[in-house]
Structure formats: structure tokens, C-alpha cells
Design goal:
The N and C termini lie far apart (75 Å). Strands 1, 2, 3, 4, 5, 6, 17 and 18 form an eight-stranded mixed β-sheet that branches. Strands 22-23-25-24-26-27-28-29 form an eight-stranded mixed β-sheet, sandwiched between helices. A hairpin with a 2-residue loop joins β22 and β23. By secondary structure, it is of the alpha/beta class. It binds ligand NA7. The site of ligand NA7 has 22 residues, from α5.
Length: 875
């Protein structure tokens, strides 16, 4: 065992503790890829470290999972360490996806090369861990009964290391041989001449079934849920991969670090729903022939966020399965229909589907014929018993959290980690847990981990933890711990990120849904390794934002704050915009700004299909103006309209935009609310300043009311809506209609409205920069639109108007909008004046994100609420 080193290590000034055998800087649990690299890093930093490993040698998941056909599913070139360039040079992978024995040889080679075994106690686990607050140390109890004391405690226990308990009645009664893919005997299993049952068709089942089927006499595969699989097309590393990698290894590794999945690949920018059928087929065929998970999961930009887009790939894969499996009934059973493709980890297969063409292989669909029990001689389903010599369980893992909560971990004030995580894991960055000082998890829940190339994620975590420990050492601090506020904000962010995608729809181990009783929470962070790395780097650069540090003398420092307060997709859009280094809109002049907005609109994804779109004109006070009418599709073809009508005013600061510029948003509102949406144009500033837009907006409403029937709408059910400056006009129109005795307005939907010219509003100061609508842009809009004296006119600042007797209102404000406070103030004032008002505050949104249909997916639930409110106006 290594000795603690007072000279270079972390402070070891605590009182001696008689029953403690060893006192080290860091205890590392697990000797897989993560634990080994961490031990290597710590040694290089002059820290004393002790590793513990349950197995009797290194390898982690590759030590245990020795089932036939076990391979990695990320190409070996990628699924290998990058920290040691010499190692990269001297090791050559024999196959695209290395087998378990070859990966284990690699791990052995690394452990030997860096002499890592000397710091590891094998065949020993950590059973319990307790934070000793007085001494700022962890006390760890081993399976041998001794106690080890350490300043830091790191769980490098892997995400798929705790096998799921077998949860099938009678399993213990079986008298034949029983194997589990995750604990396969080291000297192999001979299945020759045997009748074999396999339960489970995840990756382990898919990899092992074809090989076991080749050996045995008869095989029955018990399938609860079919998985999507594409051909692995194993063989030597493909030339295209070598071309990308060889000769530019460092650059390649760096690209991997900043990629989405930890493998360099340009993210798809095309949308499946915009592509032609032929384009889609071409791309899916390429995925099918390439045999790479990363390619499959990112074939189109909308694949994992749009169900219709996803279905196009589902249909393609179903077609492939039917083309391989000759019996149509078996093929149908093998076609997954209960989850979007990619929402469970796609399997890489070699002869898996073809195996079901063999006469000695049967497939039982457990949804149709559930297992009643396992008996002494075999498996009984609702169809009757079948006898077997061998049962193989390929039933998966208690993923991501299982191995961590298997240890009895007690943090500050005796808090148990298992209790804290009873409703799902709470972590800050997937690295640390509030209330558990100096405790780290490598690739823990809340980090990209299993959604990425694990090697990239492991190295990033090890490096971050090592830097953090060194930073503490340099400051003379003795502990670091996540602040509860930072932790809950991160958990929220991780959930928000998952909820943008289709991932939560599947009953997957990503969701904890495979383990009975486990909380249904999406465990990994879906935002990608590059964005995540950036986040962790920023936390460090912001003096460990969200962390509390303590020193020996009781001193406390806390970098208060939250690292990602915006919605994940809003963050991504802002990052993409920042990369474009666009000039501020107001510097382009009104013509230039309009041209820019039009060009941008051409590149955005479209909104949903509506029943009908009709363009036309209506008479404004100074000449004809354009409108675009969106009619909902009538679900019942015998019952056409008339629909309620929403007169909609577009945004653009009274300067930009037209009746088509909010097209996706209008479509979305039309489809969701079932109302016809009439998007009307109005004259713009500076050519036609205040009150031209107001006059036009009022005229549009009157014309719509007079012509509703001709538009196929119901004249007695008319509401108004608008976004930004358009919401300003909608609010003003309601006041005008009240004052002039009509038309009757059923409701007003005001989305991030301008309601007042108040340069002193706190939200204008807080969100003045960085959230698209800046203070300077807002002031420019006002300057174009209204003379200073006119800005207090209620027709420009409706908050300053008479607010009694107005139509019911639904006001939406965004948290990071300079206009947030005036929107809220309008909602409050409407309420005080006795109107019916609902105010919806959009957490993590900016001024422009709510109406960015199919771009900012996190706005969708808020748009659904808006539509519900519109339905309510007409109820
Ligand atoms: P998985 O992917 O969790 O697969 C486990 C399989 O076992 C899956 O088909 C399960 O069906 C099935 N299962 C689990 N419990 C039962 C019971 N009680 N009855 C019938 N079937 C059951 O684990 P793997 O080991 O295959 O792969 C894990 C990861 O390792 C993989 O994603 C790669 O990253 C490598 P279910 O789908 O839950 O209905």
C-alpha cells in the first residue's frame, strides 16, 4: 500500500486513528478504464492513491463480460485511451470492434506499462464509506473488514457493472446450468449438443445469440422487447477511419473531445422531414452499410427530437429486418414498435437476424406469451413448458446508479446516498453530490457517460477531478462540495435536455425502467461531450462555480451561481449564433436588418402542416395590406369549419417582419389550437412611424370581424395574438376595440409583449446583452417607431392605458428577456383591473426562443399551453 505523503500530498494533519490501516489522499474504487487512468494521473501529480477492485485483476466491465461475441460497439480506434501517445503508437487493434479478450489484453498492457497494479487491492471491495467531518476525510470499510482513511473518495465503478437481479418466478428452481452474460465463466462454456434458453435481447443477447446458436442443438430466445440493430460489419478497421485518424492522431483525439458523442463526426444539419424519400433512403442505406452507432444516431438533425422524423428510420429498419428474416411472423416479432429508434441503445449485430432463419432457433414474444415460471426442467410460458439444459440470462444491469448505491455511503450529518437518491440520482455535473464532500463519481448520472464514447468521457472526468484536487491542494483547502442550489439547477438542466428528445419515451435502462422499483428518471446527460466539457471547463474557470470549499481553519468560500440557467437548446442556439459572429442587427440599418431577417427565415425549419394556407390582401387606412390565413385541417371531413379565428400580429420591433415572418409559429398555433390564424401585415417604421402600425392593426381586426364568414371563420369567436411588438399591437387593439365598442374579442394571447417604454426596468438591465434582443436593439426599435413624447401614449405603451373591461388575457414572459418585467407588469395590471388573466413564465427562455418552432424544442410545452389558452378563449 502506498504511504500518505505529507510533503506533496493533500494536508494529512488529522489525529491518528487507531483502527485505520492506511491514510491516503485518494481512494479509487474500480480498476476498469476509469480507475486505471485515475490512478495513473494521481501518481503523476504526487498524490497517494489506493485502488480497490472486486475482481482479481484489472478490466472492469471487460473483466466480467466474457460471454461469446462480447465486443465494444464503438470502433476500437476510438474506444481506447488518448492520454499516452506512445501507447497509441505501439498498440494496434486487429478489428474494427475488438473482442472482449483483445480489449482485456489492452487493459492488461496499459496496467503493466504504467505499473498500476501495485496501487490496487484486488478481490476487495469497499462496502461502506463515511464522511468524517471533524477530520475532513472519508473512512472506508473494505470487504476484508479493515478501514482505510482518505481525503478523497472516487467511484470509478462503471455504468454497467451491477447486474440486474433476476426477477423471474422460479428462477432458483432450475436444475440445469445457469449462466449470466455479465458474469460469464472465465474458462468458457461448452454448449455443444445442449438445449439452450436465452432470456434478454439487448446488446449482450444480440451479440451472443448467433454464436451460441452455432454451438447448441436447440435454442429458444425469450424476447420481451425487440431492439433495433444494424450490421456491425466487423473486420479490419475500415480505411476511411484510418484515413481520418492516422498521421493526425492528436487532432483526431481533440475533435473527439469536442464532438457530440466522443467520436469525431460532423453533426447532421439536414432534417429528415425536409428530405425527399430518396434522400432519406440513401442516407439510411449508408448507415446500414457503415455499421456505426454514432452514424446511426445522428443520420438527421431531427431524428431524436421529432417522432415523425424518427418513424422514417424505424420504417427503413423494419424493412431491413423483413428482408433478412424469412418467416414473416418471426420478422414481425423482431420489429420494435414500442420505442423510437435510438431511444434505447441500438445494437450492432453480426448474423443476429439471420440466426432466426435457422430451424433449431425459436423466438418467443414474451408480450404475447409471458413467462409463467421457471421450473426445475425449463421455462413455462402461457403457451406451456419447454425443457432446457441451459438457461442464459442476458437481462442487463442496474445501470449507472446500481454500483454506487450498492455501497453504504454516508455523507455529512449521516445522510445516506441511497436515501438521497431514492427518487433518482441528484448530482452536480454527474461528478459530485451535495452533502458528500470530496466524493466524486466518474461518468456518473448527469454526465454524458453511456451516451458517449466512454473513453472520452472517462478521460475528461479523470482530468477534471485531478485538476480539482490539485487546485484544492494549492489553495490549502481540505474539502470541496457541490452547493445544493447548483446541484438542483444541474439536475433540472439534465432533465430539460432529455425532455427535448425522444429518449424518455423508451422503457430503457437509460431511464432506469428495466429495474423494477427503480425511479423513472433519465440518467445520462444528452447534450453531448463537447458541450458538457465546455460546461465543466467554465465551472472551473469561474472559480469552481457552484462549489463550496473549506479549509483547515474553518474558512469557507463559495462561488455562488448556476452554470447553465438557460434551456439546453436555447444555450445551443446562442452558442451557434455566437460562432457566426453576426453584427448587431441595429448596425445594419432598417433595410439591411430586414434583408438579414428574410435570409434567416429561409433557412429555418418549417412549422407543421396545416389544413390550408390562403394568401390575400385587406384594405388598410393607407392602402392594401397582406395577410396569410392558416386553416386547421378538419379531422372530421363532414364537419368543415367554421373555425374560431385568431388575428395575429407578427414581431419585429415595428420595423422588421411581415405577415409571413412568423410562419412556423402561426402554423404551430393553428394546429395546436384548432383555430384559424390570420397573420396580418401592418406598416413599418421608420417609413410609417407610430401610430401607423396601430391604425393598421385596428383596421385588420375590423376587417377580419366583418369578413370572418368569408374566411371560413366564426365571426362570434375572434381572438387576437401577437409576439413581441406584435403582442404590443394585440394589447393595444384590445383597448381600442373596447373604446370603440367592438369588435368583440374573446381573448388576447400576448407572447413576450412590449408593454411599456421603461429604460430602467430591471430585466432590461439583467438581460441587456447576450440573449439576442439587446438593450441597444430595443432602443433602436423604439427610436425608429415612436418619438420620445409618443412613447408614453397608451397606444405605444399599453401598460399606461385604462385596463378595465378587457378581454381575458394569456401573457407569456421569458426569464431571460429584457421585456420580461414589462410583460409581467402588464399581466399584474390587467389582473388588478379585474380582468381574467393567466401569466405563464417560461423558465430558461429568451425573447426569441418561444416562437422558434422546431428549433427550440423546449418551447413546445409552452406553445401547447398557449394553444390551450386560446381554446379556452373560445370555450
Ligand atoms: P440490456 O440492454 O438492458 O438488455 C437486457 C435484456 O433483457 C432486454 O432485452 C430486456 O428486456 C431483457 N430482460 C430484462 N429483464 C427481463 C425479464 N425479467 N424477462 C424477460 N426479459 C428481460 O442489457 P445488455 O447487457 O444486453 O446490454 C447493456 C449494454 O451493454 C448495452 O446497451 C451496451 O451499451 C453494452 P426489456 O428491453 O427490458 O423489455
Amino acid at each position: 500500500m502506498p504511504e500518505s505523503n505529507d510533503e506533496v500530498g493533500i494536508d494529512t494533519d488529522s489525529t491518528a486513528d487507531g483502527d485505520v490501516g492506511v491514510d491516503v489522499d485518494v481512494v479509487v474504487v474500480g480498476a476498469g478504464f476509469a480507475g486505471l487512468y485515475l490512478l495513473h494521473r494521481l501518481r503523476g501529480l504526487g498524490l497517494s492513491a489506493q485502488g480497490f477492485e472486486t475482481g482479481d485483476d484489472v478490466g472492469g466491465t471487460w473483466y466480467w463480460n466474457r460471454y461469446p461475441g462480447a465486443r465494444c460497439d464503438i470502433q476500437s480506434v476510438d474506444y481506447s485511451y488518448s492520454f499516452d501517445p506512445e501507447l497509441e503508437k505501439e498498440w494496434e487493434w486487429s478489428e474494427k470492434y475488438a473482442t472482449q479478450p483483445e480489449i482485456l489484453r489492452y487493459v492488461d498492457h496499459v496496467a503493466t506499462r504504467h505499473d498500476l497494479r501495485r496501487d490496487i487491492r484486488f478481490s476487495t471491495s469497499i462496502d461502506a464509506a463515511r464522511w468524517d467531518e471533524d477530520n475532513h476525510r472519508w473512512l472506508l470499510t473494505t470487504s476484508e473488514g479493515d478501514t482505510v482513511r482518505s481525503r478523497f473518495y472516487v467511484m470509478a465503478t462503471g455504468c454497467l457493472s451491477q447486474p440486474k437481479q433476476i426477477d423471474i418466478d422460479g428462477a432458483e428452481n432450475f436444475g440445469g446450468e445457469v449462466y449470466s452474460t455479465s458474469r460469464w465463466p472465465h474458462d468458457g462454456v461448452d454448449l455443444t449438443g445442449k438445449r439452450v434458453a436465452v432470456i434478454g435481447t439487448g446488446s449482450s443477447g444480440v451479440q451472443s445469440i448467433p454464436i451460441m446458436a452455432d454451438q447448441c442443438d436447440a435454442m429458444t430466445v425469450y424476447q420481451r422487447t425487440p431492439n433495433f440493430a444494424i450490421p456491425a460489419r466487423n473486420g479490419p478497421t475500415p480505411q476511411w477511419k484510418l484515413d481520418e485518424y492516422e498521421g493526425r492522431e492528436a487532432e483526431y483525439r481533440n475533435d473527439a473531445k469536442w464532438s457530440r458523442a466522443g467520436v469525431p463526426r460532423e453533426p447532421a444539419t439536414e432534417f429528415a422531414l425536409l428530405a425527399t424519400e430518396e434522400e432519406r433512403q440513401t442516407r439510411y442505406e449508408r448507415v446500414w452499410h457503415e455499421g456505426e452507432l454514432v452514424g446511426a444516431g445522428s443520420s438527421f438533425a431531427d431524428l431524436m427530437v421529432n417522432e415523425d422524423a424518427n418513424q422514417t428510420f424505424v420504417d427503413f429498419l423494419h424493412g431491413k429486418i423483413r428482408s433478412i428474416v424469412t418467416d414473416p411472423e418471426t420478422a414481425a416479432k423482431l420489429c420494435p414498435t414500442d420505442h423510437p429508434v435510438g431511444s434505447k441503445r441500438i445494437c450492432l449485430e453480426t448474423d443476429y437476424y439471420a440466426t432466426f432463419n435457422k430451424s433449431h432457433v425459436d423466438l418467443v414474444d414474451l408480450r404475447a406469451n409471458p413467462i409463467v415460471e421457471i421450473t426445475e426442467t425449463g421455462v413455462t410460458t402461457s403457451d406451456g413448458p419447454t425443457e432446457f439444459d441451459v438457461i442464459v440470462y442476458a437481462t442487463g444491469f442496474d445501470a449507472m446508479t446500481g454500483a454506487i448505491v450498492a455501497v453504504d455511503i454516508e455523507g455529512r450529518d449521516g445522510q445516506s446516498l441511497a436515501d438521497k437518491w431514492a427518487d433518482g440520482p441528484l448530482t452536480y455535473l454527474g461528478l459530485t453530490v451535495a452533502g458528500f464532500p470530496n466524493f466524486f463519481t466518474i461518468t456518473g448520472p448527469g454526465s454524458p457517460s453511456v451516451l458517449s464514447n466512454m473513453m472520452v468521457s472517462i478521460e475528461q472526468h479523470v482530468d477534471w477531478i485531478s485538476d480539482c484536487i490539485v487546485d484544492l491542494r494549492d489553495r490549502g483547502a481540505t474539502s470541496i462540495e457541490a452547493a445544493p442550489q447548483a446541484e438542483s439547477a444541474w439536475v433540472q438542466y439534465v432533465n430539460d435536455a432529455a425532455n427535448i428528445t425522444l429518449f424518455p419515451q423508451a422503457n430503457s435502462w437509460y431511464m432506469g425502467a428495466n429495474v423494477p422499483g427503480k425511479p423513472r428518471v433519465f440518467l445520462p446527460f444528452v447534450g453531448g461531450v463537447g458541450a458538457y466539457r465546455q460546461t465543466c471547463n467554465e465551472v472551473r474557470e469561474l472559480d469552481y462555480l457552484g462549489f463550496i470549499r473549506r479549509d483547515r481553519t474553518g474558512g469557507v468560500s463559495h462561488a455562488v451561481g448556476v452554470i447553465r440557467p438557460l434551456q439546453p437548446d436555447v444555450t445551443a442556439v446562442l452558442a451557434a449564433m455566437a460562432e457566426l459572429e453576426l453584427p448587431p442587427l441595429e448596425t445594419l440599418g432598417h433595410e439591411g436588418a430586414r434583408a438579414f431577417m428574410e435570409a434567416t427565415a429561409e433557412q429555418r425549419p418549417p412549422g407543421p402542416e396545416v389544413g390550408e394556407v390562403v394568401d390575400g390582401t385587406f384594405p388598410g387606412p393607407a392602402g392594401d395590406l397582406n395577410y396569410r390565413l392558416y386553416r386547421p385541417a378538419d379531422r372530421d371531413s363532414n364537419k368543415k369549419g367554421p373555425h374560431p379565428l385568431v388575428v395575429y400580429y407578427h414581431g419585429g420591433g415595428w420595423v422588421l417582419g411581415n405577415h409571413m415572418s412568423d410562419d412556423p409559429f402561426c402554423r404551430d398555433l393553428c394546429v395546436r389550437s384548432g383555430a384559424a390564424v390570420l397573420s396580418v401585415d401592418y406598416r413599418h417604421a421608420p417609413e410609417a412611424p407610430f401610430p401607423a402600425a396601430v391604425d393598421d392593426a385596428v383596421a385588420a381586426l375590423s376587417w377580419a370581424a366583418d369578413n370572418a364568414a368569408a374566411l371560413g371563420a366564426d365571426p362570434d369567436r375572434i381572438a387576437v395574438a401577437g409576439w413581441s411588438a406584435g403582442a404590443n399591437l394585440a394589447a393595444v387593439v384590445c383597448q381600442a376595440a373596447r373604446d370603440s365598442g367592438g369588435p368583440q374579442i374573446a381573448g388576447q394571447l400576448l407572447v413576450t409583449p412590449v408593454t411599456n417604454h421603461d429604460p430602467a426596468s430591471p430585466s432590461l438591465a439583467e438581460n441587456a446583452e447576450g440573449y439576442v434582443l439587446t438593450r441597444s436593439l430595443m432602443e433602436w426599435f423604439w427610436d425608429q417607431y415612436a418619438e420620445p413624447d409618443d412613447r408614453t401614449d397608451p397606444r405605444a405603451s399599453p401598460l399606461r392605458g385604462e385596463l378595465e373591461d378587457l378581454p381575458p388575457a394569456y401573457v407569456v414572459t421569458s426569464q431571460f428577456d429584457p421585456l420580461r418585467d414589462e410583460g409581467r407588469a402588464y399581466a399584474d395590471a390587467l389582473q388588478s383591473a379585474g380582468n381574467k388573466v393567466a401569466h405563464r413564465s417560461a423558465r430558461g427562455h429568451i425573447h426569441t426562443s418561444l416562437h422558434a418552432v422546431n428549433v427550440v424544442i423546449s418551447g413546445a410545452p409552452i406553445r401547447a399551453d398557449m394553444a390551450e389558452a386560446v381554446r379556452g378563449f373560445f370555450a
